[in-house]
Every structure is written in C-alpha cells, then in structure tokens.
C-alpha cells in the first residue's frame, strides 16, 4: 500500500507540473496524466517486487532449513491485494462522502446509478490489482516480458475505459469481462486447474471411525 501511495504522490506532482507549464486542463492532458499514473503504479509494483525479493533472501538466510517462511506466491497475493485495497479506498472515499448529501443524484438528468456503478467499478479495481499482482510477480520471477506487457496493457485499458463514463454500459461491461479473464489467468498462474476445483468441491469429510482406526494404526515414535 505504501508503494501505491508513492505512485499517487509522483503522479500528483507530475500532474501539477504539467498543468502549471501548459496552463490548461483539457481531455488530452487528462488522458496523458492517467496513462502516466498507471505507468508509475506499475513501476512502484516492480520496486515492491524487488524489495520483497531482497527481504525473502534475507529471511531464507536466517531460517534453519535455508527456506523462506513466505512463498513468492503469498507475497504476490498480499502485494496485489494491498494495491487493490488502497486504490479502492482512494477511488471511493470522496464518492461516499458526497453520497451523504445534500445533493440528489440524477436530479438534472444525469444517471441515477452513479453510486452503485462506482461501487462495482471499485470492486473490479480491487480484484484486478490482486490478479495483476500475482501475474506481475510471476512474470518477474520467470523474466517473461510478455506477461509484464499484458499486465501494463490491461491496466491502461481499464483506466481508459473509465473515460467512457457516464456511458456505464460501455465501461462497466468490458471492465468486468477483463476482470474475469484476468482472474482466470491469475488462477492458472498460481497453479490452479479445473481438476483441482472439482476435487475441492467433491471433498468429503472422513468418517469418525475411519479417522480413529487410522490414528490407532499409527506407529508411536521411538523414545
């Protein structure tokens, strides 16, 4: 979350300097600012990966068996989830503050679905950052430039689709399709498979008698 806040600070400073130098705030400058913010976020994600990689090596040297107690996949999941949560908080907090009034949404002909759409977009953004974190860390581990490019491209596409608002049908639908596809990709990257899902769903609890019999057959350890 701290690294995402660093990217937000850098993007804000870049936006402030750009507006001061150009003296305007048109749509083209806003698009460039959004693209720069996305690239800064991904740059900070890479910095987070490098730092966690160094920390993982340090933990491995301190452990008795030479292994780190935290796996790279766990670090990727936690990092992506942190990026998503802090990003969602910043994207929804002002909207929640405005929802208390005194204005009424849609009174001047605007869409009355502004708040519910913002909630769904925030949810998709949290999930996407979690999925991107898993894919990004795996691509860095494998040094797979294609995976990194697809993550950055998907992030840019998601950010660009939000400029279609308040035409919510054109933005919300594609973003959720992208979220589903990215989630499946992250699931596969993390080692998941359809066979494992079926095994998980068909798992049954062992009967008590069988568990007791299995425990009784265990050979006690030698003293």
TrEMBL record:
A Pfam family matched in the record: Aph-1
Compartments reported by the entry: Membrane
Similarity remark: Belongs to the APH-1 family.
Keywords: Membrane, Notch signaling pathway, Signal, Transmembrane, Transmembrane helix
Stated role: Potential subunit of the gamma-secretase complex, an endoprotease complex that catalyzes the intramembrane cleavage of integral proteins such as Notch receptors.
Name this polypeptide is given: Gamma-secretase subunit APH-1
One record GO biological process: Notch signaling pathway
TM spans (from-to): 29-48, 75-93, 113-136, 148-168, 174-194
Subunit structure: Component of the gamma-secretase complex.
InterPro entries in the record: Aph-1
Range of residues in the leader sequence: 1-19
Species name: Lanius ludovicianus (Loggerhead shrike)
GO cellular component: gamma-secretase complex
Membrane topology field: Multi-pass membrane protein
């Amino acid at each position: 979350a701290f690294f995402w806040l660093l990217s937000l600070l850098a993007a804000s400073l870049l936006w402030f300097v750009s507006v001061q130098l150009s003296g305007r705030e048109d749509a083209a400058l806003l698009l460039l600012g959004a693209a720069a913010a996305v690239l800064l976020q991904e740059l900070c994600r890479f910095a987070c990966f490098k730092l966690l990689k160094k920390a993982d090596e340090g933990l491995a040297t301190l452990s008795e068996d030479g292994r780190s107690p935290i796996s790279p996949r766990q670090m990727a999941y936690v990092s992506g989830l942190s990026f998503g949560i802090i990003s969602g908080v910043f994207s929804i907090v002002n909207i929640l503050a405005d929802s208390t009034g005194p204005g009424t949404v849609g009174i001047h002909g605007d869409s009355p679905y502004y708040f519910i759409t913002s909630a769904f977009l925030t949810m998709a953004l949290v999930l996407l950052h979690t999925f991107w974190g898993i894919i990004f860390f795996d691509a860095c581990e494998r040094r797979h430039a294609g995976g990194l490019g697809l993550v950055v491209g998907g992030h840019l596409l998601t950010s660009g689709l939000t400029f279609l608002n308040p035409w919510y049908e054109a933005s919300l639908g594609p973003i959720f399709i992208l979220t589903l596809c990215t989630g499946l990709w992250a699931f596969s990257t993390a080692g998941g498979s359809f066979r494992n899902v079926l095994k998980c769903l068909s798992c049954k609890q062992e009967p008590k008698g069988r568990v007791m019999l299995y425990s009784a057959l265990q050979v006690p350890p030698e003293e």
